[in-house]
Amino acid sequence: MDFEIYGDSIRAGYGLEYLVYCAEVPGFEVKNFAYNGATVFDLVEDVYTKVSRKKALALVGIGVNDLIYGRDPDRVFERLVQVVLRLQDLDRKVIVEALLPVKKKYFLSLYNFSEAEINEKIKRLNDLIEKGATSYAYYYLPYDFSKEDLSTKDGLHPDESGNDQLKIQFKNFIKDIKIS
Predict the structure, then answer these.
(1) How far, in Å, CA of 136 to CA of 134, rounded?
(2) Which helix (H) or strand (E) holds 140?
(3) pLDDT in tens, 21-44
(4) Any long-range contacts for 167-174 (C-beta under 8 Å, 24+ apart)?
(5) How far is it, in rounded angstroms, from Cα 87 to Cα 65?
(6) With b meaning 16 or more CB within 10 Å and e meaning fewer, what string describes 20-50?
(7) In sequence order, what are the beta bridge partners of 158?
(8) What pLDDT score does 110 carry?
(9) Torsion angle in degrees (nearest 10) through CA of 139, 75, 6, 50
């Protein structure tokens, strides 16, 4: 069975030597459709135009791109649900990842918001994603990424240590939910 990845630069492996933290999933052939700068609004378009019907596991990971562009977390969640429902209609079991918190570093200085403001929006969106898992029949994948700074200098992307931590948490999640 295929394991498809949809999302933004974190899922595409931005700044890393190897693909992504979930590049090796035993028993699945990984197909990564993630790309830098993707928003949930892009994913709606991608899923409607590029994906055909077949059994697969799909990981959907959106990042702060939508929030940086000033979109409301509730509106982003509505679009995310469209992506999930479309993937389910195309015979996918869907996992939706939590957004990672950002750190005040170089990248954040380019925008007119504070670390607290963007992390508050991230928390709101993560709450919506977690609560929506039951209603929309997807798996919710939270991450514990708060104990230390494991991001690149831009404050948005996991560095190699962060990527390794995400990989451990991802593998444990896949094992715990027993998807085959």
Answers:
(1) 6
(2) strand 139-141
(3) 666 777 788 888 888 888 898 888
(4) 167/21, 167/22, 169/143, 169/144, 170/21, 170/22, 170/141, 173/95, 173/139, 173/141, 174/25
(5) 21
(6) bbbbebeebebebbbeeebbbbbbeebbeee
(7) 151
(8) 61
(9) 120
Q: Please state the pTM of the whole predicted model.
A: 0.88
| pLDDT > 60? residue 180 | no
Give pLDDT tens digits for 9-22. Answer: 777 777 665 556 66
Instruction: Round to whole Å and give the CA distance between 2 and 56.
Output: 5
- Cβ-contact 83, 46 below 8 angstroms: no
Residue recorded with tokens 């979109």? 71
Which pairs from 19-28 meet CB under 8 Å and 24+ separation?
A: 20/163, 21/158, 21/163, 21/164, 21/166, 21/167, 21/170, 22/59, 22/166, 22/167, 22/170, 25/57, 25/174, 27/1, 27/180, 28/1, 28/2, 28/3, 28/57
Query: How far is it, in rounded angstroms, from Cα 150 to Cα 63?
Result: 16
